[in-house]
Write a sequence for this structure.
């Protein structure tokens, strides 16, 4: 089982998260990879509900809630009741949350550069194409 696609993806995912967490800590940022996943989607489209964030991030409700709670505790996001649907909150970046982008993106760019240092463009394109197909095949079930 150690040589399966799922195991390879899982190990890579864990290593990526460990690397993100280590780099954030080294930079003096009180953040984790789970927080980054929420932040990046809010930087693209602020003021979204938790369900949308979970779908975009590919995370379950519990993980997204935990990440938002952590970001809210750090004053990086705030919850605002949705005027159209009182059952939901919209998640907005605070100024601190917005400002973090300039500190975090160079860290992430460096990480990606290191991760892909000996991967050529054709290999990367093939990998992304295969993973896209695997995702689409599995998504059909849901």
């Amino acid at each position: 089982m150690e040589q399966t696609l799922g195991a390879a993806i899982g190990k890579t995912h864990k290593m990526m998260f460990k690397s993100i967490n280590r780099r954030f800590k080294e930079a003096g940022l009180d953040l984790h990879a789970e927080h980054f996943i929420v932040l990046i989607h809010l930087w693209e489209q602020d003021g979204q509900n938790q369900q949308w964030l979970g779908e975009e991030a590919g995370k379950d409700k519990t993980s997204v809630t935990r990440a938002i709670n952590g970001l809210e505790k750090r004053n990086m996001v705030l919850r605002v009741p949705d005027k159209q649907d009182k059952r939901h909150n919209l998640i907005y970046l605070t100024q601190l949350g917005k400002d973090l982008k300039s500190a975090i993106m160079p860290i992430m760019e460096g990480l990606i550069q290191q991760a892909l240092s000996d991967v050529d463009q054709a290999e990367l394109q093939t990998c992304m194409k295969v993973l896209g197909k695997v995702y689409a095949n599995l998504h059909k079930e849901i």
Observations:
- DSSP finds six helices and three strands in the chain.
- The mean pLDDT is 94.
- The first helix runs from residue 5 to 26.
- Residues 33 and 133 are 25 Å apart (CA to CA).
